[in-house]
Amino acid sequence: MKKATTLIVTFLLACPAFAAEQSREARRLEACGQVFKEIMNIPDGIPKDLLNKAECVIVIPSTLKFAFGVGGDFGRGAITCRTGQHFTGPWSAPALFALEGANIGFQLGGQATDFVLLVMNPRGANSILGSKVKLGADASAAAGPKGRTAAADTDIVMRAEILSYSRSRGLFAGVSLEGSTLRSDGSANRKLYGHSLSAKEIVREGKVGIPASGHELVALLDKDSPKNESDPVSLRE
Length: 237
Fold this sequence. Notes:
The protein is of the alpha+beta class and 237 residues long. It has one domain (3-236). The chain has helices at 2-40, 48-51, 104-108, 122-130, 155-159, 186-193, 199-203, 215-224; strands spanning 56-66, 72-81, 95-100, 113-119, 133-134, 141-143, 162-168, 171-174, 181-184. Strands 1, 2, 3, 4, 5, 6, 7, 8 and 9 form a nine-stranded mixed β-sheet that branches. The protein is globular, with a radius of gyration of 19 Å.
């Protein structure tokens, strides 16, 4: 009897900690939806025609500078992509992702910063979902143009696989993240979905549904950019 009581007490003590871990990942995903909503409401923000040509969107809320070794920066957020073999369907369930790099805080003064990254072609999407990538080396990256009427056909935009934007201290701008890395946050995805899943399994293979905490982000994208307007030929390369 004493042993059984001990086990029950141990279980009850462990449950709140487990729930807290789960809710932390859910809160992160909810923050992605809120940040994306706020950024899309900026008048001089992400050009709509670029969003409509993006295969995936990555949202990283409040990246903070921290110190390990010689110092660095990291942020944790989520990626969602258009579904279907050629990225022409509705937006997928989100996979939790991490952005890391020693130059992030240096560029932005070490302030709490939100990032939005647009993945502009299938090659970039498959590369990011398949493994850890270094921006500028494994995947071409550039600061995204802003403004609803910004030219989206400039050479730098057309060549880039990833376009990146930041919001810090209320200021919104395109920002270069070359040298930073993107990777799937495996432990966070396991906590959020209850079992181990790769980013590709979540985003491209549809092995899980959209969690409640991800509804706002996905619903906003389905509303603001329901159709992929990329050149159909480019989606089949």
